[in-house]
Specification:
Strand content: 25-35%
Helix content: 40-55%
Distance between the termini: 22 Å
Number of helices: 6
Order of helices and strands: EHHHEHHHEE
Number of strands: 4
Structural class: alpha+beta
Largest sheet: 4 strands, antiparallel
């Protein structure tokens, strides 16, 4: 429950197609472990467009909704580090951990091949896109 005059901020991933490292993870998992395992990654991108987030926030009775899209680049020392850190604690990570060791190695090999264009001497460069929504509760003044 949001307190009177309360504000909230929410961040969700943009389209998986504009988050290529995660798209590569989902594609490899689908190939190696099936659609159900890949879905554990794809669901993270279930509100991909700014209008989707705006509609959910409005449906929750929030007003003065401001949604912005941001692109960011983050670095990981390696593709393996990206895989384990980005999925840790998520349903995709749990599904990946349950794969037999050989399949986990194949997923990593798939990712190393798919993400090679983003690897340099400093490691893996991951480009991400996310939508953020800032709102206030119904009847509250507009956000400034």
């Amino acid at each position: 429950m949001l307190a009177p005059r309360g504000r909230t901020a929410v961040a969700v991933w943009g389209p998986i197609e504009r988050n290529p490292a995660f798209a590569a993870v989902a594609e490899s998992l689908e190939r190696r472990a099936g659609v159900r395992v890949a879905a554990a990654v794809r669901w993270l991108f279930c509100l991909p467009e700014p209008g989707d987030l705006r509609a959910v926030l409005a449906g929750a009775g929030l007003h003065a909704i401001r949604v912005r899209t941001a692109r960011k680049t983050v670095r990981f020392p390696s593709v393996a580090e990206f895989l384990w850190r980005s999925l840790a604690g998520s349903p995709g990570g749990v599904a990946t951990e349950r794969l037999p060791e050989g399949e986990r190695r194949q997923v990593l090999a798939d990712l190393e091949a798919a993400l090679a264009p983003w690897v340099d001497a400093d490691g893996l460069r991951v480009v991400t896109e996310a939508n953020t929504g800032v709102t206030s509760r119904s009847g509250d003044p507009a956000i400034t």
